[in-house]
Amino acid sequence: MKRMLVVLALAATFGACGSDSTTSPSNDQNVALFTANLLASNEVPPIAGAEAGARGVATITFNLSRDASGSLTAAAATFDVSLSGFPSTSVINIAHIHPGRAGVNGSVLVSTGLAPGDVTLNSNGIGQFTKTNVGMTVTTAQAIMADPAGYYFNVHTAANPTGVMRGQLTRTQ
């Protein structure tokens, strides 16, 4: 009887060590995940002054729809952005994805829809924002997925309206 209990306990233990789809990395072809490490020194030209210490991290999730043949038919993004290193009086205005390799500026490609006043920085100059279901064209999503390093995410403030910090996209999934 003891031997049977030991075998059952071992089976339960090893069974619990198996793969769990809720904790393992996703192979979902309908999700693409990107990060961007944001620094004021990455802006072109680099930021000087009170906001020169600005930094942050953007996590961008593309939610993709495909037809029966696997062709991309729609794309939307979720932006999760954490900010720090600001004077507490800084006003975050807008944030978006641009085409452009490191050191090269480009026009706005995908706007988060962020507006002045959406982000409140605390007394330590820290803030965050999330924007969900931001639409983009299929062509834009495909281009970013094919060459994420050719695109950057940046954040703009009232004091630095052309951009206060930026980071190149890196695909993580």
Q: Mind explaining what this structure looks like?
A:
With 173 residues, the protein is mostly beta strands. The protein has a single domain, classed as Sandwich (Immunoglobulin-like). 14% of the residues lie in helices and 39% in strands. It contains two helices and nine strands; from the N terminus they run H-E-E-E-E-E-E-H-E-E-E. A five-stranded antiparallel beta sheet has the order 6-3-2-1-9, with helices on one face. A four-stranded antiparallel beta sheet has the order 5-4-7-8, with no helix packed on it. Strand 7 and strand 8 (165-168) form a beta hairpin. The chain is elongated, with a radius of gyration of 21 Å. The N and C termini lie far apart (48 Å). Mean pLDDT is 88; it is low at 1-26.
What descriptive keywords fit this protein?
173 residues, five-stranded antiparallel β-sheet, four-stranded antiparallel β-sheet, disordered N terminus
Determine the structural class based on helices, strands and strand pairing. mainly beta
- Given the C-alpha coordinates, what overall shape results? elongated
> What is the CATH architecture annotation?
Sandwich
* Physical arrangement of strands within the biggest beta sheet: 6-3-2-1-9
| Distance from first to last alpha carbon | 48 Å
**Which CATH class applies here?**
Mainly Beta
Total number of strands: 9
Approximate strand percentage: 35-45%
Number of domains: 1
Average residue-wise pLDDT: 88
Order of helices and strands: HEEEEEEHEEE
> Rounded to an integer, what's the Rg over CA atoms?
21 Å
Main pleated sheet: 5 strands, antiparallel
Number of helices: 2
